[in-house]
Design goal:
Length: 90
């Protein structure tokens, strides 16, 4: 079955999220957030930033659940993950 992948990167909201609305209008949707290792290594990333992101992801997942969706959270290289997610089955 085909699905539209919606990648949450910086805009962690479900209301007024244009890509999510467009995707939901036509396809089953797979909402994804990727915890990229490079982000943690940035010199200006602090634990409070990571805590805020964790809280935001919990809230986003709850909001998506109201629409019948679940947020999938992965950790690793985003490009490798998307290649894996979009690889033909078989």
């Amino acid at each position: 079955m085909s699905a539209q992948l919606v990648w949450y990167k910086r805009d962690l909201r479900s209301a007024d999220h244009a890509p999510l609305a467009r995707a939901m209008a036509e396809w089953p949707v797979l909402p994804v957030y990727v915890i990229e290792p490079d982000y943690r290594r940035q010199p200006d990333t602090a634990e409070r930033h990571l805590a805020f992101i964790r809280e935001s992801l919990i809230e986003l997942d709850a909001a998506l659940a109201e629409r019948g969706l679940r947020l999938l959270v992965f950790e690793g290289d985003a490009l490798a993950l998307f290649r894996w997610l979009t690889a033909p089955a078989g």
